[in-house]
Amino acid sequence: MSSEQATMAPLSVAKPTEHRSSLLDRFLMQGGIVITFLIVAVVATALVEPRFLNRLNLTNVMRNFALLLIPSLAQMLVMTAGGFDLSVGAVVAISSVVTAAVMLVGSGYFPGMEIAIILLSLVAAIGVGVLVGLTNAGLVASLSLSPFMVTLAMMSVLMGIALYFTQGIPIYGVADSFITGVGRGQFLGLPIVLHVALVVLVVCIVMQRFTALGRHIYAVGSDLRSARLSGVATGRTITIAYVLAGILAALTGFLMTSRLGSGQSTIGGTLALETIAAAVIGGVSLRGGVGRAEHVALAALFLAVIANAMNLVQVDSKYQTLVLGAVLIVALAIDRLLLRKRQA
Amino acid sequence: MLEVTGFTKRFRGIAALDNVDFSLNEGEVHALLGENGAGKSTLINLIAGTFPWAEGVYRINGRTITSLTPQVAQEIGIAAVFQEFSLVPDLTVLENIFLGREQSGSFFLKRRQMRQAGTELLDGLGFHLPLDEKVAFLSRAQKQMVEIAKALRMRPKVLILDEPTASLTDGEADKLFHAVALLKARGVGIIYVSHRMSEIRNLSDRVTVLRGGKRIGTVVTSEISDEGLIEMMVGRPVEQLFPSIEHRPGAARLEVQNLTTQDHSVIGASFVARAGEVVGLAGLVGCGRSELCRAVFGLETIEAGTITVGDKTIARPSPASMLANKVCYFPADRGSEGLAMARSARENATMSSLDLPALSAGPVLKFWREREVIKAPLADLALRPMAPERKVSAFSGGNQQKLMLARGLMRPFDVYLFDEPTVGIDVGAKVDVYNLIKSLVEAGASVVVSTSELPELINLASRVYVMHEGKVVAELGQAELTEAQILSHYFGGRA
Fold it and tell me: A11: distance to nearest CA of chain B, Å?
């Protein structure tokens, strides 16, 4: 960039805010904070509690990471499009219930056809996710309601449905091969859920960088009016973002069911906060238009590591939410201070 | 090529455009002239498909069009560059140019192809822009260039330019004029909205004048005088654009010494503004004169230098402390720095005066007095329409500017800093602003005007400081105030 500015004709334009981006600045802008956080967390945990590095424990961390990453990417999609999705956790819960219920009912009708039933339950769960995404998007895009309020209300509605349907009791009777094959399954020595999460991550990265859709999501989130005037189909773009988020949340519910071995209406209660935390720590702007999947992945890994560390040293779960909140505040403060420094 | 007849548009029952005819030929530059609120914006917005028209026939290349959206308009070859940009701040220059028109294969973007097309587009216009810079970091002039390039990406047959030079320096404007000539030669029809007579005279083939939503007339530019055009525009003969101001320089009211801002947009600048005179700050856009005003008002971080108001030295200026010391600042960017767009005209007018005894008793606002107190200043400024309860965003640009100025009239100040006071406002409103400056100065106030309009400097100021790359490079007295003299310092040394 500096070379291009140097070749500018003398008259062309008064120079814009000058960028004297040092190496450090650039590092910090390119997800450097998250990387630093992550390394510090990993090293500190490994020093304090060597059990952290156990293969079994690391596998556990990877699973938790995967199950946080997918809904965090969902959150990122909606946030970069200028919205919020507080209903992520509720979609996870209801799709878990739907997954288990379909399996339970399905195995009664088609005994022995486990794989078909598992696929059927996946389709059903994703169908729920699409439906919720369409509803959220419809209210946000067509009626221009506040995404915050729409998805908050949606969260309440979905939680209510899931709780009413199950009476709060887990739905057992999911296929054994589902638990052993997906939830506990490994491939190339790594959990299946991690593979799924990484595929989702790569798809997100490619979508953001190399497709018109990705660019339109940024544009819509950055400046809706300008995007519309530029010929971007804004309503459609917002809808796709919410629907993709719904699908990813539903996928999370499906995978969590395989891990827990039952459909539970009570999971996902803190996911709205956790996914927003991962997104924000990963550099996603609360005002939309900015944020990258790979940075969100690093942030999700960071959160998974500190959660694991706290479990290892047996921190009371009540304090864990306290720590999560504190980390979020620290991340926001650092982000703002850097922004101020950059603008100065 | 393009022809609209009987165009009518009403907003809440009020006709913004009333039975207007307009036509545009291939390779023609057709200027639109009119005061703010005359219906120019409405007309170009209808042509560009931003909102639907109520009555009228729209024909392009013989085809009658019944309804239009911005997307469809672009597809049939109508592109518009509005004053309010349609650029997305978080995307780069290149990404913005192709936004909504990305070239892509079945799934992936053709990034290399777009980069080449973008480079060719900008080179063809003679614009030099960093392709990978985020638009948020560009200057207003650069954004303007991106916006123009973006409008041309579809090779339009009709191009609408809404005051394209409002934020450009003369050099940049020349490039734009060159581009206009180029497009004209290619057969593109151009609808050109401007308040600058010289541009209309140099560029346009025909002029259509609007007033109060009606078409007053369409004339061939070469067959009418400037005075004739202004008369059509305001509906009465205009004696004089600039009032003659009696300067009686008195004691120094504001003295700035060796001021340097933290970002080095201003370096070691000194100037003095006395009571009873208008001091001009001249220079190219980006030379630091805006930043100098902002720094004095406490909006830029100061690294070194002193600011003295009256006999008090202000160590750390802040807007609150400067207002308390009777210094008032009117920003160039009405939208983002001046006005709360979603609030009423009344609230905006009194926003910085709520501590006056007339308006408050301790913490309690005398809200019943507010309506009375603002009557006089708003009447002085001839706010149109006189509707204090209306949201600011519903007023035209010139009237928004008047609301900004109304704030400064709520109480007497010693020093008034104006940054680009007449950008994007019409001749009628300009005269109102000039008369306001005259009355302030003649009442003994000190006025500092930072402007890129040379005629304003020459006709209003008693002294002018010229800035270049953050430094004050010359001080000119009234006798030396000619265009040539001022311009000779624009690029630092003597030309």
Answer: 6
